[in-house]
């Protein structure tokens, strides 16, 4: 085998090994049938995700400050919406993100705005469940009881 051909062969083998060693993307573990899905991500994503409340609460959290409808500033704790959407692998053609609550109410924002928001979280409610907290966004996006994030 010639020297140039051998070098290409070695490079191809090294590339194949590196590709095989790349970390695999996170996946949602199927929940046991006796565990209720508390939050899911659907729509234009690489993989739909579903978590129990305990799984979401066990994720890395962050605190953000946001004004409520009365104009009072409060601190909220929750999981970054960007991180959750990154786990699901938002597809390139995504244009909007819709949040749906358990009572059927919903709110929608442009994907680019949600993606750019580093302080937007799915916050933990004292009574259980989750709320959308998006500081500096319109109050109709601050949805309580959110159970689904749908990428459109």
Structural features, described:
This protein is of the alpha+beta class and 152 residues long. 25% of the residues lie in helices and 31% in strands. It is built from four helices and nine strands, in the order H-E-E-H-E-E-H-E-E-H-E-E-E. It has helices at 3-21, 53-57, 81-88, 111-116, and strands spanning 39-43, 49-51, 62-67, 73-80, 96-101, 106-110, 121-124, 130-133, 146-151. The protein has a five-stranded mixed sheet with strand order 2-1-9-5-6. The protein has a four-stranded antiparallel sheet with strand order 3-4-7-8. A hairpin with a 5-residue loop joins strand 1 and strand 2. The longest helix is centred in the first third of the chain and has 19 residues, at 3-21. It is globular and about 40 Å long. The model is unreliable at 1-29 (pLDDT under 50).
Defining key terms:
152 residues; alpha+beta; 5-stranded mixed sheet; 4 helices; globular
Uncertain stretches of 5 or more adjacent residues: 1-29
Largest sheet: 5 strands, mixed
Please tally the helical runs, counting DSSP H or I stretches of 4 or more residues.
Answer: 4
Radius of gyration: 20 Å
